[in-house]
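> agent: user asked for a holo structure of the chain below bound to nicotinamide-adenine-dinucleotide. Plan: (1) validate sequence alphabet, (2) canonicalize SMILES, (3) run complex prediction with ligand conditioning, (4) return tokens. Step 1... ok. Step 2... ok. Step 3 dispatched.
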Amino acid sequence: MKTIRIGIVGTGGMANGHAGQYRRIPRVKLTACCDIDRQRAEDFAARHEIPHVFTNPLDLFDSGLVDGISNVTPDTVHAEVAIAAARAGVHLLSEKPLAMSVEEGRAMVRAVRKAGVVNMVNFSFRDSSALQECAHRIAKGDIGRVMHVEGSYLQAWLPSKVWGDWRTRTAFLWRLSTQHGSMGTLGDIGCHLLDAVGFVGGDIAEISCRLMNFHKGVPRNRMGEYRLDANDSFSATLLFRHGGLGVAHATRWATGQTNSLALRIYGDIGGIRIDRDRSMDEYEICAGKDVDTSTWRTVKARRAPNTYRRFVDAIRNGAQEASDFVNGLKVQAYLEACMAADTSGGFVKVRLPSR
Ligand SMILES: NC(=O)c1ccc[n+]([C@@H]2O[C@H](COP(=O)([O-])OP(=O)(O)OC[C@H]3O[C@@H](n4cnc5c(N)ncnc54)[C@H](O)[C@@H]3O)[C@@H](O)[C@H]2O)c1
């Protein structure tokens, strides 16, 4: 079996997760990394035993040292790095959200289509075997026609120090400020939630949404250069293309909920509950004879390969997989519809991309 050579572009916090995952996969070699901050890239290379360091992504793509890359740059940089990689014929696993806008996302889709490279977006909750199995079971009709979906993504890092103090850590602070490119809770965790809701519930056709920015209790709602103006909570009502109804909400103000993503999907002949706090591999189902007694049974899902393994497999066998750039563009359209609905106060139609 051929060894797949991977490069990592952007060597900040999340890149360590990517490197750690690739290093666990047989016949995968981390051959190069790149960051505009040379020292950070060199420290990262030393930590993960990566032989080649670059400070310009274009030099990395031209080097011939990689088959594919993880694009772990900030959201504002995803598009330029991905488009350049595609032009150089390099396969791509890009961080979420796909882009900063639908327009940028479309350019990324055009670039990967033209180049014919494998393209994936890292919606990490798709690593849940429970989510993968439930999406499959719902698609084959195990709970019937989906009527109602309830999705929540709750974090606690504003009212607590559970992940460290946001007042002193830049990586948190930029997420609170639109002037630093943040789409707030909506872009940060809402994209995971809307991806997961769409994966199990089907395409979302219309959205109404309210975004909230609460005062953080610091003078002028500001920390140094950071104006704390990005949304930190949202609540959305969803109409699915097949006719079902849904609600999705997320916040960083959920005391006691470190990083909690939960879904409840109700069809006309059964229901499914997934709760990441309980398990990434187990879910609950109420169907068949259990419907009349409201009995929920816990099911252990078959172990599904994680995103990094699916990316490597896709490079090896040339088969594009479901969490691709077109799906990322769909999620981007959901994000834009949420923002437009917050402004208009009513339902907004989602402009779904075609495959
Ligand atoms: N999937 C998930 O669950 C998850 C979790 C956390 C972060 N993320 C995403 O990962 C991405 C990175 O987040 P992070 O927290 O690691 O950010 P970070 O700021 O810690 O790291 C980003 C790195 O990219 C570098 N960089 C910036 N522009 C560059 C360029 N043009 N070329 C090369 N390097 C460049 C920066 O110097 C920095 O070192 C973001 O898109 C974020 O949304 C995803």
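> agent: step 4 complete. Summary for user: The pocket of nicotinamide-adenine-dinucleotide is lined by residues 9-15, 34-37, 40, 57, 72-75, 77, 81, 95-96, 122, 124, 171 (CB under 6 Å). The radius of gyration is 20 Å.
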